Amino acid sequence: MGIEYLGLSSINGPLVILEGVQDAFFDEIVEFTVDGKTKKIGRIIELYEDKAVIQVFEGTENMSLDNTRTKLTGHPMEVSLAPDMLGRTFNGIGKPIDGLGPLITDVKRDVNGLPLNPVRRKYPRNYIRTGISAIDGLTTLIRGQKLPIFSGNGLPHDQLAAQIVKQASLGDGSDEPFAVVFGAMGVKHDVADFFQKTFEESGVADHVCMFLNLANDPVVERLITPKVALTAAEYLAFDCNMHILVILTDMTSFAEAMREVSSSKGEIPSRKGYPGYLYSELATLYERAGIIEGAEGSVTQLPILTMPNDDITHPIPDLTGYITEGQIVLDRNLNGQSIYPPISVLPSLSRLMKDGIGEGYTREDHQDLANQLFSAYAKVGEARNLASVIGEDELSPIDKKYLEFGKAFEERYIGQGPEENRSMIETLDLGWELLKILPREELDRIDTKIIDKYLPKEQES
After folding, report:
1. What is the CA radius of gyration of the chain?
2. Which domains does the chain carry?
3. Is-annotated flag, keyword Hydrolase (predicted)?
4. pLDDT, tens digit, for every residue of 402-440?
């Protein structure tokens, strides 16, 4: 029988301090009994001699220095796992909240994960189709990749996340098992209801596992939610041999929760008040994506973060960009023009795209076509800048063609309905259709043989 400690030494926000602790270890889970009836759990985050600093997940309401009993469990934070997690909804620390009862399973895993031997990693190949042309055609998501979405307050990243969950697949003709793990941190009740309702009405809820930390849930729970979601994803991928897409929204809520708890602990702040270990904490989460030698499954991450004041140099997007393999950037100007999804093509990038597209994966013309669309859209910006100085009527015929291309590209290629699910072939064919607006001699990024094959002469400009 374990030792039970009576009373607490001090309470500071979500943190309590317990003195006289024996044989405790960092990250150990403790159980609190408040007033002899209410049960809470916490995690040891700091040890000094016989003192332990403990984060209380359910918050310290109703707790006082003399009404609380504390018991050490002897193990770190663990979550129950089973294949029938799919179709279920859990709270931020992995407890079911859908009224269907607990999971029937003997499998429990440490939410902190196990260190992955880099030698066992396989290079990401093949793609995940989202049905969104601006992503599939120009910043293709590769299995095993971590590709964040940089958004801003008020932009439709929640709608985009829901659309990706509804439409994501392993591509046309693939029969490999695929599922989505969705982790939401600090979301409002109406946003959580929107996600649940959308997944149920679209019929995809049975292959989605949801972890919801609501805005009125304790702040410290937000620090555990992405770890619980990724632990579930690793189990489904490497034990159940499934390809898992993990969507985490919003990583900014996670970072702000970390800042709040760090401040409560009295730690010296770094940039913008965030703790100095923000980089290592983000890396610990993002690096849990990948493919392991000998396993048939994969974990792909699509974290979403809102940039404070749309500042891409803010510590959260800045550090995220160092760790991940590219980014998808949402643009406020496009959103103001009612273009959905408002994906800003030029600053968006998928560094692993070249290894999962082309012949044998998507189509032989994919890489050349993407290069040409990027190049042409960059020239659209130059033509618009020139037009703002000398007027559109004074532009050369070729610059006017680029303006026409830019308008069509934004409205037809970037823009698509929230219910529109395009196949990879439809996305590629649409790209060629838009390039027909430009003279053939402007297509300088594509091999002549590919132009001859996919841009018929009788339809050229």
Report:
1. 25
2. 4-75 (2.40.30.20), 79-355 (3.40.50.12240), 366-459 (no CATH)
3. yes
4. 999 999 999 999 999 999 999 999 999 999 999 999 999
